[in-house]
Amino acid sequence: MKLNSAYLLASSFLILATNAFAQTPKYEVSVSHLRNERYCEVLYGNRDWLSLKIKVFSTEGLNDCPEKLWKGVTEKTITDMHSASFVKLNGPRYWTIDGIKAAGANTVNHERESFGGIEMNLRAVIDINLWQLFRSGHYKATPVSRETKWVYQAGKEVYELVSPEGQTYVMQSYSQIVNPTLTMKDLPTLGEQLKLPKGWTYQARLLKEDLNLEANGTAYVLQDNLENSYQRE
Prior knowledge:
Elements: H1 3-10, E1 29-32, E2 38-48, E3 51-58, H2 67-71, H3 75-82, E4 86-95, E5 99-103, E6 112-115, E7 118-129, H4 130-135, E8 142-152, E9 157-162, E10 168-175, E11 201-206, E12 211-223, E13 229-232
Antiparallel strand pairs: 1-5, 2-3, 2-4, 3-7, 4-10, 5-8, 6-7, 8-12, 9-10, 9-11, 10-13, 12-13
């Protein structure tokens, strides 16, 4: 089972078909001052023949995923606890957005579990098939169902991937999973560490005005080879 590929499909939210007539959501939750805030996620699920159902739990809004406790969380413990056929420890991660507005049952709920003493809320239940899992990978956009607005403030930097077709993907979080020493100060020159496919470019840009990335039903998300996450603009 390709664990990283499954995470690319999940990206912390339930995958659904796009609703072409989706309305602008009424946001139920608004969080600010997120830039460089640490969080972690735990994904686990069970395979049912050719499909995989995954629950995604996150520390966002509860705690900053204490390092000492996080080091004690293991895939084996979660596998044994839930008789899971799939487990992914996704963290630590750090937001590169300044705020979030969210709506919908997939992203706003109160189901909670503790992993190694770290409290997390359920943020999604993902149903994927093995064909989707096979086709996923780094630098490949995945449709993700969610009702969110990523807020990037004027005067702050954003970090972007640009595809050969000219599509721009804005970083939403950086990861210390592959490179444990990666920090915010490395992001302006991150392109030197990336293994970019042919025709792709990486850039840092200072915002002259606020940038709001809205997902009114579906977002298109990808990860680079360091497992930093981006959403299509």
